[in-house]
Amino acid sequence: MPKCIFLSRLGLALSIALWILVLPVPANAQDPPNPEDAIAIITSPLPGATISGEVVITGSAGHPDGFAYYELEFDNQDDPNEVWLPIGERVAQQITNGTLGIWNTVGRGIADGTYQIRLRVFLNNPESPPIEIVVTDLQLINNPPTPVPTSPPQPELGSSPGPEAGPSPTSLIVLPPTNTPLPTLGVRNGNNGDGAIATGTAGDSEDNGDGLSFSQIQNAFCGGSVLAIVFFLGFGGYLLARARLRPRIRQIMWQIRNDFDND
User: Fold this and answer.
1) Mean pLDDT of 60-70
2) What pLDDT digit, counting tens, does each position of 105-114 carry?
3) How far is CA 245 from CA 148, 177, 236, 254, 255, in A?
4) DSSP characters for the chain?
5) Are 61 and 94 within 8 A, CB to CB?
6) CATH class as words, domain 35-140
7) 78-105 pLDDT tens trace
8) Where are the domains of the chain?
């Protein structure tokens, strides 16, 4: 009897052990996904890039066996308070070297400035934190400033522009002034029988035996004046006599003509 009880208990224990070995393990009892196997990559835009309009964000997001979804967000780096805003809806499809999303910076009225975007990949284990990557220093410029025309730089005071390269000008040759002698007057010396000519400068007015004296010039001027007066008086008398005799001559000519016509 005791032997039978022992055998029955042994069989029950073996049955329970076999049942535990054969029974499948439930899914929630498996090991959680390893976060290190997650993929979160942004290939464009790169840090420091200038962006505008609709920005296409490319890269990869996924996990070999524990992927749940991913999401894209942006933040204004000029604001000291970090506030991440969604770029689009959550995506439950894994992406490999493709378009992760499109950030419409115009339609949402986002101001120009410096921004950063991040990709967050969530796993199907709620206890696993998301895997993320951040791209910083993106310069958003949708309204570039109007360039202001600038005036050309003015030369500094006391400075002059340097000479341009080219042939050197020929310097002018300045001749020194020369003393040109005044013309001389030559007259015959009445005291010399050999007809020698005495010379003297036009500016000399002294009376000497070798040149014209002032008295000789004065006598010549007076003689010329007398001759001119006599000439004008004679010419004036001629004109006066002609004016007085012309009517008489005409009268005589008319009379002669009439007498000739009458004959």
Assistant:
1) 94
2) 998 889 999 9
3) 100, 67, 14, 14, 15
4) -HHHHHHHHHHHHHHHHHHHHHSPPPGGGSPPPPGGG-EEEEEESPTT-EE-SEEEEEEEEE-TTTEEEEEEEEEETTSSS---EESS--B-S-EEEEEEEEEETTTTTPPSEEEEEEEEEEES-TTSPPEEEEEEEEEE-SSPPPPPP-PPPPPPTT--PPPPSSPPPPPPPPPPP--PPPPEEEEE-TT-TT--EEEEETT-----TTS--HHHHHHHHHHHHHHHHHHHHHHHHHHHHHHHHHHHHHHHHHHHHHHHHH-
5) yes
6) mainly beta
7) 999 999 999 999 999 999 999 999 999 9
8) 35-140, 212-263
Amino acid at 31: D
pTM: 0.47
Give me the chain's average pLDDT, please: 78
CA 204/CA 213 separation, integer angstroms = 9
Q: Who's near 42: CB < 8 A, 6+ residues apart?
A: 57, 58, 59, 100, 117, 119, 133, 135
233 CB-side CA count, 13 A: 6
Beta-carbon contacts of residue 177 (< 8 Å; ≥ 6 apart): none
Partners of 72 in the β-ladder: 119
Look at residue 207 in the predicted model and tell me its pLDDT: 47
Portion of the chain with pLDDT greater than 70, in percent? 66
Going by their DSSP bridges, the two strands 184-188 and 197-201 should be labelled as antiparallel
Q: In the sheet where 85-86 sits, what is the strand order?
A: 50-51, 131-140, 113-123, 67-76, 85-86
